[in-house]
Fold this sequence. Notes:
The chain is mainly alpha-helical. The protein contains nine helices and three strands; from the N terminus they run αβββαααααααα.
Amino acid sequence: MPVSPPSPRVRRRDLQYDGQRVDASRIKAPQYLHITVPDTDRRAKDGMFVLNVQTNIPRYRRQSYQNVTRSYLEFVRLREHLVAEHPETIVPVLPPERSLISLSDIEAIRTFLNRISKHPILSHDYELQMFIESEFGFLPQQQHYHSSTSRSKTSFGRLLGFGVSKRFSYGSSSGGETDDEFEEDRVAASKAESRLQNAIKCLDKEIKARRGFDVISLCLGTFKLLSKPIDGIAKAGKAQVGGDTAVLAGFLEYKLQHVQTLNQTLDYRSSVVSEYDTAVKSTENKRKIMERLRSSTSINADKVTDSIDDLDDAIMFEGNMKTRMDQVTEVVQKEMVEYRHQSTEDFFRALKLYAQRQISFEKTKLEELILVGGDRFSDAMYTPSPPSLIVKTEAVSGRDDDDDEDSD
């Protein structure tokens, strides 16, 4: 039985479906990099963090990496590389190093990796890929990080790929309002850095004083009736001092590094703006030389050629610096928004951890005090005042009023 050809409507629908399928195949899925820390390996001397990685970035050799072990020192190497390689970004901060890895340290490492993996620039760093894929530990390649001046002259055109007209000049300086905002942020960051350093010194003095007080409290344990509760309170106080040192001092040191990174980023942008202003002045000087040669009566052809080449190079370099300055300014503006968000998040996380520890320590002290007072002390702590006392007071006051009326 012969098969009838499809109708024109069916053919149009098939062609439309094929076109939609082709368009869908052209749409690229967003690139992602997910790094998790499910566990730690405590068999090593200093402890190792175990990482699992999922990614669809084409540069990676695989899409999944399981049980990648990295030490704290390797995390430090990675961060130092990111700070040196990307001075226009505010690189997240690592938690302070400790002899024993706690749950809070694991959570801090997770936060560090999560912020890097979501960063639009840091997540595509080549050494981060080596940090994940290296099978025998991570050691970044020795690179000579030049200043922005030397680096801009050699690699701006290759990295940015712009077409700049040789005869076009960009004028002088960047937007004044933007510079004022960054200058205010830089001054505030400098003040915060100084105050954090003073706060760390004050906290050290307080910790030493509280430790001395706990030592003296242990001496009171010679009293027979108070020996056990005082000994328990002193031990709880000693543990509380250690907890405060871990939480408060750790947070202040963490925040100090965060502010110092912010200062470095703002200083780097200031240096880029200064170099752009220098390039603008150099272009103006080259242009004045050309004007003098033009008005001169005796013109040397070689000098004119050299002056034209110098002016072309100056205008080209000025354009490169303008593009670089705009890129750095745009990145730093986004980094400042993320910095404020991360600062708020870090503060409330540290506050929550500190409050949980304080509640636990105070409960321990309260249990020791209840042992001293017995059941009556426990009832007084947890039983509210009876409402009958209030009723009796009102009755007495009412009877006094009646007596006053009778006397009248």
